[in-house]
Amino acid sequence: MSAPTEHSTLLPPSQHTPRDGQNGAGRHKESRLSLITRIIIWGTLTLVFAVGLILLLGFKHVLSDKFHSLFGGLSKDPMTAALTVLDKAPIIDGHIDLPVLTRALYANNVTAIDLESPMPQHVDIPRLRKGKVGAFFWSVYMECPLPEDEDNDFLTPTWSVRDTLEQIDVARGLIDKYPDTFQLATGTEDIRAAIHDGKIASLLGVEGGHQLGNSLAVLRQYYALGVRYVTLTHTCHNAFADSCGFLPGIIPFHGGLSALGQTLIDEMNRLGVLVDLSHTSDATAAQALAHSKAPVIWSHSSARAIHDVPRNVPDYILRMIGTGEDQKDAVVMVNFAPFFIAPPGKANIEAVADHIVHIALIAGKEHVGLGSDYDGIGTVPEGLEDVSKYPALIAELYKRGWNKYELAGLAGGNLLRVFKGAEKVSRELQAAGQQPAYDLYSKRKDIPRVEF
Ligand SMILES: [Zn+2]
């Protein structure tokens, strides 16, 4: 076969060439007949299509539930609708404290922990599956040092970094122990791939700047171990930022972010570590939201207008979230802890939904998510007893008129968008040549200062 030239064609020869023996009149009659046949076929198809469309649009309400769902609608039954949404867009929880439970109850001995059997608190594999969980951040948390240690400019030595490494170790050990269930994830593509393979994407989040030991180098090493968010503070102030404490009345130390705290955010942006503003003071949150080049998260915080505690996000900060001028993309992942949800004895699934609706009202439905705090809270709201109950919450929002796209965003899509945004900023900063920050905490005396 000869090689094609610029005049050769890849199309087959013309089909219109008359065959040998056919005369002109025969061809004319044949083409008239085929024209009539085509008109009949196309007319019938158009009629069937039009009738179908009228039935679908005009009589949607009389079509059976099953038939309706075939065309992308959701069942009228809220739980069925919720499960349909979660099959396509599973839950991504911003904050689960399983590692701190394993430290307290099993001394972090991975071989002694059986996640396939009922665990004592809110999380185990059967209940994660029942709850349609596709991903969650394993919180690698260690408590704050004693309050009096803050009087020493955060320079009193602690075991926070060792203990955090132990929490990363137990989380990763459990993820590795159940390879059919968990898959370590360090980015949005990992999350999508794990969910696609029927696994639960497992991410790591450090819950408090005190766990960094005042050091940006520690941040980089946590990143290397897979950590993808750092909560700027827990209930204590640290060298980077002020906390909101636990009860009202904590006295600010820096007035928000310190200079080193700003550098910490720059370094988190460069690395692609999400800035988490749960637990921070309002001043810290507002300054961080303005300073960060990347979208930010609240991994487990609710709405202060619904229940007035310092851990919840006030409306003026919710108004700073968005895509407008002077706004930043963010997701507030609602905490289920009864103390943050409602007055004593009043926390239930409807009250949690009220927080979601309020954040959606002020910041937009695309800026709210779920950060249960399961295994980190002593009590739970009625109707949200453990990780198997997420579908009930999605069903509650469906009852309140949220459509499938909005529900998918709440379940996890909004977090994915924000995380993707942070990954993009990281790529851009690194492409622009931003170098790692080597700033030291100015009050450290243990390391010689060298002027470069
Ligand atoms: Zn917390």
UniProtKB/TrEMBL annotation:
Highest taxon, organism lineage: Eukaryota
EC supergroup of this enzyme: hydrolase
Ranges that cross the membrane: 39-59
Keywords tagged on the record: Dipeptidase, Hydrolase, Membrane, Metal-binding, Metalloprotease, Protease, Transmembrane, Transmembrane helix, Zinc
One Gene Ontology molecular-function label: metal ion binding
Organism listed in the record: Sphagnurus paluster
Protein name listed in UniProt: Dipeptidase
Region (Disordered): 1-28
Chain intervals with Polar residues compositional bias: 1-16
Catalytic activity: an L-aminoacyl-L-amino acid + H2O = 2 an L-alpha-amino acid
Leader sequence segment: none
InterPro entries (UniProt xref): Dipep_AS, Metal_Hydrolase, Pept_M19
Cofactors named for this entry: Zn(2+)
One Gene Ontology biological process: proteolysis
Family label: Belongs to the metallo-dependent hydrolases superfamily. Peptidase M19 family.
The EC number(s) this enzyme carries: 3.4.13.19
